[in-house]
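Technical note accompanying the year-one report. For the benefit of new consortium partners, we illustrate the data format agreed upon in the data management plan: each record pairs a sequence with a structure-token string. No post-processing was applied to the example shown here.
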Amino acid sequence: MPSAPAHQDGSSVRRRRAICPGTYDPATLGHLDVIARSAEVFDEVIVGVVGNPRHKDPLFTAAERVAFLQQSLADIPNVEVRTFHTLVVEFARECGAGVLVKGLRAISDFEWEFQMSHLNAGLAPEIETLYMMSSPRYSFVSSSGVREIAAHGGDVSAYVPPQVATALTGRVASHASPHEEGNG
């Protein structure tokens, strides 16, 4: 293991870099909370936005999702936002990060994340996965729930940053499903 850089007082300090990966479609206040709390634990946090998710059809482009996060996290100096198109462990290696931080809201999140953690450990045993529980006030907030509320004309401003609420309202209005238009 490489030696840690020297601190101002001569002691050695090990810089810790973590990745907070996700699709962030859209970024919620729960996501921002986990990222901000991670920034208090780690020296550097890289928010990794999945550029081309295989298991989801994103409402917003990767560039839009990155822009929302950059605007929302601009006041946290040790946080950077990047897009990635590889396996998350490859992205972590490219960034020099040794930790993946994943937010958990409920036991249902844990089942999926538990599986992914073991798969990632098989691919990159040197990279740890750390689970951070959501703050209680955000434990029920999910991107899919926010999209559903917005799709039915509900107010999402309590769950997402203002720029996301504005964009989401406009986006869902322009993406009404053709099969929904004929119903009713």
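Partners are asked to follow this layout when depositing records. The chain is about 40% helix and 15% strand.
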